[in-house]
Automatic annotation (TrEMBL):
Domain TM2: 27-75
Name of the protein: TM2 domain-containing protein
Keywords recorded for this protein, A-Z: Membrane, Transmembrane, Transmembrane helix
Top-level taxonomic group: Bacteria
Regions crossing the membrane: 32-50, 56-78
């Protein structure tokens, strides 16, 4: 038996709302990542945005692996954004001691 959000006490709702607000402030947007890929993809701008600093620096100094990494990244950006957001959400919820259903 699981308690829904409506069954939570007020202080618990506030804690969940605070965690959700913190997550909203750090989550990454797929559209921004693709926009950066279009403008500064060859320099790794989209990877800097997603926090992949080491790969970003490698792309910066090799001009996106001579363009090959940049072209391949178009297929992986959406999945990388989901992965980054998932790990950030899990870290925030863990910090607030909030367990979510579905393994998130």
């Amino acid at each position: 038996m699981s308690l829904g959000p409506a069954a939570l006490p007020k202080w618990e709702k506030i804690r969940v709302q605070r965690a959700e607000a913190e997550y909203d402030s750090v989550k990454k947007d797929k559209r921004i990542a693709y926009g950066l890929w279009c403008v500064v993809g060859i320099l790794g701008g989209h990877r800097f945005y997603l926090g992949d600093t080491a790969r970003s620096i490698a792309m910066l100094f090799t001009l996106g692996g001579l363009g090959i990494w940049t072209l391949l990244d178009v297929f992986f950006i959406a999945r990388r954004v989901r992965t980054v957001n998932h790990s950030r959400r899990a870290a925030i919820m863990s910090r607030y001691n909030i367990l979510e259903e579905g393994g998130i």
